[in-house]
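Example record

One chain of 977 residues, shown exactly as stored in the release files.
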Amino acid sequence: MAILPCASRRLALFLPLALLAPQLSSAQEALPAPRALQTGDETPWIYEGSDVPQDKEWTFGKMANGLRYAVRKNGVPPDQVSIRVRIDAGSLHEEDSERGYAHLLEHLLFRESKYLGPAEAIPTWQRLGATFGSDTNAETSPTHTVFKLDLPNVDAAKLDESFKLLSGMVRAPVLSDRNVAAEVPIVLAEMRERGGAQQRAAKAMREALFAGQRLAVRDPIGTEATLNAARGAPVKAFYDRWYRPENTVIVAVGDIEPEQLAAEVEKYFGDWEGKGPLTPAPDFGDPVAPAGANPANPIGETAVIVEPDLPRNFNYAVLRPWRPVQDTIVYNEGLLRDSLAVALINRRLEARARGGGSYLYAQVQQDDVSRSADATFVSFAPLTNDWQKALSDVRSVIADAVSIPPTQDEIDREIAEFEVAFASSVEQRRVMAGAKLADDIVNAVDIREAVAAPETVLMVFNSMKGKITGQQLLEHTQALFSGAVIRSAYSTPATGEADAATLRTALTTTVDADGSARLAANAISFADLPAIGTPGEVVQAAPIGVLDIERVDFANGVKVLLWSNDAEPGRVALKVRFGAGNRAFEAKDAAYMTLGEMALVGSGLGELGQEELDRISTGRRMGFDFGIGDGAFTLSAQTRQQDLGDQLYLFAAKLGMPRWDPNPVIRAKAAARLAYESYATSPVGVLGRDLEFLLRDSDPRFTTPTPDMIAAATPERFREVWEPLLKQGPVEVLVFGQFDREETIEALRKTFGALPAREAIAPAALNRTTGFPDAGETVVEFHRGDANQAAAVIAWPSGAGLADLRESRQLEILTQVFNNRLMDALREHAGASYAPVVRSEWPSDVNSGGRISALAQLTPEDVPVFFREADKIAGDLAASPPTTDELQRVTEPLLQYINRASTGNTFWLYQLEGATTEPKRIALLRSLLADYTRTTPAAMQTLAQKYFGGTPGWRLAIIPAGQSLATSLPQPAVGGR
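Predicted structure tokens for this chain:
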């Protein structure tokens, strides 16, 4: 796919670095032809036993040593190759003494291996342009371990080197006592950071729902006891047992011929041999009802989990044994009917919640869980302590679904939703990202199924959609709620509110079927909706001088940026900017800022409430995302040409004829209240609640609303606050994607061009600024979570606005250098934090509020270590320039990120939003790539001196309640001279 409509435009914009993709060299072409490709009449390994039509864009291979691979040419994004190495071993393959070993091995393969010395993996991949954590990553699940590499700007040498390094990691890691001892603290830090009340509740829920199976007690993170006892020899024994070619699948997708990718796989993995005989996977176990259970209602284990700071949550699961399937068309037709049945129930449950039900949300989901159970899960959040009422209401909706077939109108509505999703996948097939395609193969292997092209999915759906009956869906619904055992878990903040016996009684009590949530047929058409106003007139239309982007101005003051292109077939990115953003609010209305983000869209427009909005968009590709930025409010959506006009109508009507339904506000109040109760459970929760408020110099507008503030909020006041804000400030519309220009301008005339003249933003709002706190004593806050959890933040003020936007881009380079050093100091050397992060925030819509902040989760004892290391790094950067290698490790990934991101419309939309009022944004585009990727050590030192050299960092520590900071905690110091 071309990055832009023509190559010359791309070069005109990014000429300073002449970003031309390197050509494959003869060294790559000289690789021996792959010998294990499954071609001709041979059935590829992933399609064995399946009649699903093969996706011919994939090429499969199976080598003599048992290793299987899948390769595919794909140019999205250009010049990238995505590689996945999947090992068929996860936490379910561990013995009791090995708990956590699968995940520990994931770490150890990055620590040291045949071609990479200790701690060399991260910097090596960075030098190759791969960003750690996104382009280079891994995951461990109960059933597999997957190593992931998205390699940008690939050429023959880089591809070969990457396969070599990966082969060394997978085939020959150094599993010494020294490396195990170095990595275990990092894994324990990860365990600690993921711990707390929510993790305890999830663990207890998993133990209850999967009682008697390995899955109940095989969390991939492991246990402190087994990890602390880990040594090189037993870890290597686990590695030797499972890391072998027969258990390995390699997927490679990218902008290179598949035969060349296959040749690389065979070159570096063809002679791999496992040690000893192949070990069969252990029996994961089946869900089994307890002896004497009633076959008609086989209630098994129930658990009540008391966590004082967590909101109420109820889960029950209908469990059936998981078995491998023949992935046939008939099987997939059954899956589609299951999905339709689930969608019908979920729509009814949501309708009950919107209408003021006894629960905040409720959802049904079918899932094949870790090859351990075929399960139907029901989850909901009671609004009060009357969980029995909420459970009864949810079960009543389900009882109706398992006793009476759905109506044809309901079926047609869900079919229309599925059809647009499948059709969109076909439209966008050629812009499917290689990384997503690679992950699809990995997931298919994990669940032991084949992979289907989007055209195949749509074909299967189209062939059956006219034959779907209410009786069929009733039978599938009944099957989904039948199983070997039913287990439940209820999490509550109150001791004594429930026990296992009352849960069992509540689940066995007969409920009456409630059909009131069935959605009656009520056709709604955009053609029947009132006009926004008199269609407006275009007063100016001209190119902006970048790409083929055009600016169109309407007589009412609305300004539009249009870019019609075919870079992403079937997609149109739409964004509307208006008003003053968070500047518009007064301190007394902080609660309404939060509630607006949650409820403004749901409150409807014109004659359309949330249910009507859902109905009118059925079978359409439409969205309605609302956001509050520093300097503007935004409405955004991903749509398509055939829905663009109606999408524009919805957005314009929200501004021109808003509706003020109180129910979404009432529901948002309930959600905000329940969420607030959980903030104190962990350092991360406290950060989410207070950090933005503190970093904005305790500006009351950014207070997370307390329960008292939420209780005092009313739908009437919600309208009083928001109604004038929807009328204020200039409107900018950005439409980027595949659309017809003339049709779109006509749609704009009838929608945004027809809006009444906008009111001016109040001067008080325009003059509001955001401060930064003084760097005095360390601010200390407390959480009610685990005693070994803490968090720390250090921050410095930076800048804001367009005037120094180029400097902000350079500051991103400095911030990433800081990030690498902090990661090295706290993770690799001290083992104090799993993922410390440094980030730069530079608002461009307003002229205040910028900052550089470093954050880490730690033990309370390591909080002083964090401040000491952050101070040292800031001081060192101001005192001495970073090395050229440090800069390369940052600028190369940034270069590749921009190259890849710029192939999509949303990248350009983000860069240009606000340009109709700030034309300087257009000129600043021309230096974007150079600003982010070209610098010098001296320039970075100068920048560090400006932001760190004369300004002490503001500090925040969040520690457990009842503890105090170590007396050695340093106080703010000026970082360098």
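Notes: The first strand starts at residue 59 and ends at 62.
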